[in-house]
Amino acid sequence: MDDETLEDIYAKLDHSVECDFALEKALHAMQASSRASHNSQMSLTHEYVRLQSKVQALTTMMAELCLLQGMPAEAFLGHLSHRTKVFHDTLLTSLETTDPDVAARFDNREISDLPDEDQYPPLFPPG
After folding, report:
1. Model pLDDT for residues 7-51, shown as the tens digit of each residue
2. How do residues 33-42 score in pLDDT, each as one tens digit?
3. What is the pTM for the complete model shown?
4. Angle in degrees, CA 114, 56, 88, rounded to 5
5. How far apart are CA 102 and CA 95, in angstroms?
């Protein structure tokens, strides 16, 4: 240590400051990435809540219309369940053509959850 000159000490300090600056820069980058990830998650959550609200609004409106037309609640729920299975299957099949791995991860249905057919009967048969 006695052989060190002021220049050596200054060089070590400069190196230390450069390392601190690099670490601080990396930390800021990580924080920015974390904020972006958080914002993305918040955006997805907001979109999910918005879509769920629409689905529930439409479902309750359709239930009211069906009841006004004299359809029993059980019949409406049967139609809703069958159509949900058909559309879920259709969307997963579509996803499977673009990204089979993601489709496989999303498809956790039991055999009983699969639709009997690709079509669904009309809610109010023509008559």
Report:
1. 666 666 666 667 666 777 777 778 778 887 878 888 888 888 888
2. 888 787 888 8
3. 0.60
4. 20
5. 8
Say if CB 127 and CB 72 are below 8 A apart. Answer: no
DSSP at 123: S
Question: How many angstroms separate the CA atoms of 43 and 49, rounded?
Answer: 10
Question: Quick check: helix, strand or coil at residue 11?
Answer: helix
- Other Cβ atoms within 10 Å of 91 Cβ, number: 12
Q: Find tokens 């729920």 and name the residue.
A: 77
Phi, psi of 58 (to 5 degrees): -65, -40
Q: Which pair of structure tokens corresponds to residue 74?
A: 């059980």
Q: What is the CA radius of gyration of the chain?
A: 30
Degrees (nearest 5) of the Cα angle 69, 65, 50?
165
Asked if residue 78 lies in contact with residue 116, where contact means CB atoms within 8 angstroms, the answer is no
